[in-house]
Amino acid sequence: MIRLDNVVASYRTGRGSINAVDGVSLEIPDGCILGVAGESGCGKSTLMKLIYGDVQSPMALAAGSIEYGFADGRGQPITSQTIRQHWFSRISYIPQSSMNSLNPVVRVGSQFVDFPGADPDKKRVLEQVRAYIGKLGLPVETLDAYPHQLSGGMRQRVMIAMATFFQPDLILADEPTTALDVVVQKDILMLLMELQEQMGNTILLVSHDMGVHYQVTTRMLIMYAAKAVEYGESESVFRAPLHPYTRMLIDSLPTIGDDRARDGIPGRPPSLWQELRGCRFADRCPLATARCRSEEPALVEHRPNHFAACHHAGELLAPSGGPAWQ
Amino acid sequence: MTATRQTAATSADLAAGRATPPSRPRRTAAGWLWLFNTRLVLGLVILAIFVVGSFVLPFFCRVDPALQASYMKNLHASPAHWLGTTGLGQDTLWFLIFAVRNSLTLGIFVGIGISAISTAIGLSAGYIGGLYERLVMLIVDSFITIPLLPILIILGAAIRGNNNFLTIGVIIVVFGWAWNARTIRSMVLSLREREFINMARFSGAGTLDILIREIFPYVSAYLVVGFINTVLFAINTEATLAVIGLSKVEVPTLGSIIFWALNYNALFTGNFVWLLAPIVATVLLFLGLFLVSTGFNAAFASKRGVA
Amino acid sequence: MGVIQYVAKRVGLYLAVLFIGVTITFFLPRLLPTNPIDAYIGQIQSRANGVLSADAIAQLRQNLEELYGLKGNLFSQYVGYLNRVIFHLDFGPSFTYYPTPVSGMILNALPWTLGLLLVSTVIAWVLGNLVGVVAGYFHTRRAATVLEVVGILLYPIPYYILAVSVILLLAYVIPIFPLSPTFPVGDLSLQMVGSIIYNSTLPALTLVLAGFGWNILSMKALAVATTEEPYVTFARLKGTSNWTRMVRYVFRNAMLPQVTALALSLGTVFNGALLTEILFSYPGVGLIMRTAASSGDYNVLYGAITLSILAVATAGLVIDLIYPLLDPRIRHR
Amino acid sequence: MAVILRTEGLNKVYRLGSFTRSREIRALNDVNLNVESDTPVIVSVVGESGSGKTTLAKTLLRLVQPSSGRATIYDRVVAGPGVRGIDKQFLAAVQPIFQNPFEAFSRYRTVDSYLHETAIRVAGHDRAGATDASAKALAAVGLDYADVRGKYTNQFSGGELQRVSIARALIPGPSLIVADEPVSMIDASRRMIIINLFRRLKEEAGRSFLYITHDLATAYYISDYVAVMSKGTLVEFGPARQVMADPQHAYTRLLLDSIPTTRTRWRPRKAAA
Questions:
Q1: Which of A37, B55, B299, C171 has the smallest number of CB atoms closer than 10 Å to its CB?
Q2: CATH homologous superfamily for the domain B83-303
Q3: Could you read off the pLDDT of D264-273 as tens digits, one per residue?
Q4: Which CATH number fits the domain that encloses residue A142?
Q5: Would you call A120 exposed, middle or buried from its count of C-beta atoms within 10 A (0-12, 13-18, 19+)?
Q6: CA closest to A162 among chain C residues
Q7: What is the pTM (predicted TM-score) of this model?
Q8: Residue D168: its chain B contacts at CB < 8 A?
């Protein structure tokens, strides 16, 4: 169980500091795949950095704490202060599939052993990796190749191999398949799901594609303007979203075979620089009332294992498909 | 003789001209404030002192400092001669002021010449491409590889024989445009692929419009920096030739002053100032030019959200 | 294969550079208003205070034209010149040290120049880039800016100022090194090597200082850019140490453009070496060029220039051929 | 039925490497496309990266010279042997919309200067007419001229800037607008604003679109016809609803199966503990 308690991440800039993650409290059960969704700038990547412990100026963990639920070698519980030593031993990271997360001038194999978490006996580790990557659909010669000789899909498989071969308790994947073609993306996502099932560990997956979330995740967290607005089982979040933003996010995506009219969400998220009172989605929300603009809704459990931060959680928008406000 | 080169990375920044979409909140183009960072201001102050000093003061000088034996030799600093006199009976300070003026004049002359040629060649080679570009780049790479000093030594006779001081400037321009042309060409190559060039073309703009309204603003940032580097390069080249006596050494320049100081062994006659003054002046002038060059560079880079 | 294309292209450029270099040294003097032969005859006449008869002068002019290869029209002279220079490295005899062949003189001066040039350039490159990568990698920390300031102060100072300041400081004010170096002749004994090193420290120091600043600044800028690359960020997220990331990730990648920059800057560095030799009267090609220029010994002058272009172009080629060994992306297509 | 777009044996071969050993990449492989309709249409060209869809777009925009074959839009030959350069008539017939709006405008020019230039140089308006045409075009994309005048690219969001780019393309009243991945740089939740705009411009302003994308869902939602490309070859073409509901070619089926939809799951997901 990973527990986030009122976590706040702030960025110090020339014009003062803003909270990119503004008070998020969550309990993430072990063995699940948690999807983190939201528009760009909603704080999902910052939250990932916080959980991974990649905190360096100008970003700082301004308040709150994170407990990881798994202990280190000596039985001490790991917290956000000590997680750094466990990078790529108990916790690992799959970067955005930008084309060059691998050192272009060094063979792929040597990048499996150049980090402290790896077992000092490099030769033995490479033997294990050589056997392991076969299962991930990578030819054995991959380890002796240079990154520019691999295709985008193969490079992403190498990243997944690197992040999983030492069986971490928690894997954070930040938009792992964004730059890949849709066919290769499916293989990579299926691979991730299989690995998670075998290892039984927890994966945090950030993606802007709700379709990817539906296919892969077992739990969903929706972020909006640095706040968590909905959190619950994927099935119930997708089938019966509580928060209007989640519903509009899902409704805005065209689906093949479904001819209902779709509309983008008008307007834009509020700038985090200005003084924000009440629900941050109020300006764009069709159900917004005076209460929404004055009193900020808390993340409350409206259904078993299904939380939402909205005073009108669950109320239906106008008949789906034909948004009343157009 | 150092051809002061654009630091590879800063030209790479400019070459790439990576205009990553700037992060919001939106920044309006805040007038000229973005231009001034400490480096640039410091550099401009130094340059102002040198330029104003060397172009204004000569009007107050009664005696032509190049004339030898107008005063007693090797006098120490005194109210009449603030830096004493040289081993040839000239006032050291006035000689230095004239030297700075002549060097700067040469530098600016060559700067304009090289900037014009290198921009024309760099822009056309980068934009037109094909065989023309390959041919031009072959010549450019050869000119960069061939050391310039020996060629200047060959032409030494022409330099010394000719009465006009700027002949060496013409020679430096003829052989010195390659570096800038190469940088401008690589910048234009990367700009040519940028989408807004196609946008302009589909807005009805012709090749000339595109060169001037689309490409030139991006290249202009480098032109300012390139010009200053060329001034630095030109002064340096002439001075190097003068120091070894193969330039018109009777004309006071930052190089010829040191040539006379060495040849009339300022060291042994204890006349340190005669050698020290030009060293300090040259270092300060070059430092000023360099600070302005990198200051401009940083300012332009930050304006385009690249820094 | 990537490497063959790379090498073929680079050798092609090398030959073109040589050809253009030789052509320049052929045509330039002929464009000059002063004709070397008149200058030489003038010298002879002044020495013989005008006693030479007219036909003796005509005969002398005839031989000189022969010696200078000024026979026939421009094109046949050019072909003759190319043949002599490229195939036989023959630049004719020197006048002041008649009849010693020019090529002999220069070829035993060239190792001195190349020795000084290559040793100091390598030192300047290695030191400068190491300091530069540290300054670049830790650019957010205050200490790194100190290293950059060193680069900023050194970089703009031209060779001749460095040379004169080094003489002033280390040979005059604190006389640890000789004012003008003297090089023993004869076969290489240990003691002789010691004195060669001792005597050439000042010119070498000048060249190192001149190259040092440039390398710091360019490597720092490259290192700052490379540190932002995704593979360095990912290395950090793997928990790699600062040292591993700085050396195996940032330096290994940022040094590649620095190798190309080194090859490109050889022409300029060579100028600096010539100048330093002349100022320190170091027995290299520079000194020969300087004396030949002032004494009007044109054969030696053109020979020295052509050979120095050859040396610089060859050194550039060698460095560019090392590049594929460092960059696997070219080695393995 | 008018021929909106037809390509006959369109080929494009890139030769890589110099004389020693050259590799050939067939970006376009004998593409024969035929779109006939009396009313304006939206044709989508879908495929993965490297499928040749962008090369096809660039060929129709004369930004790339085809190795062989011809392409015509309405009755004008837009690409083929001897057809070179971008002249005024071509600009009046075909206009582009680029992928990254921030890249489509120079940082040193105000955004509306492009609208003015297009109005004057392509649509032949005078100075006053140009402002009026720009205002009308911006209104058509839901923007107010006053909000756009005198501003630079960094003063807009991606969505707004792309709408300005569409407005510019509308000014000359082109027969075909070629949009190369117009929404891939825009937030998923706001893409539909642009996609619905395309549909409205087709119905109300009578503009035909060639919509290049790797996102089959938006292609299904918006287009009348869809062309599926793989490795430079046109593998399937037909009415969008029909092709997507009943794909004939194996590659189209593979593409459709790979799309992460929110309707049915690839693998049963057991709820976490």
A1: B55
A2: MetI-like (1.10.3720.10)
A3: 888 876 654 4
A4: 3.40.50.300
A5: exposed
A6: C238
A7: 0.83
A8: 199, 203
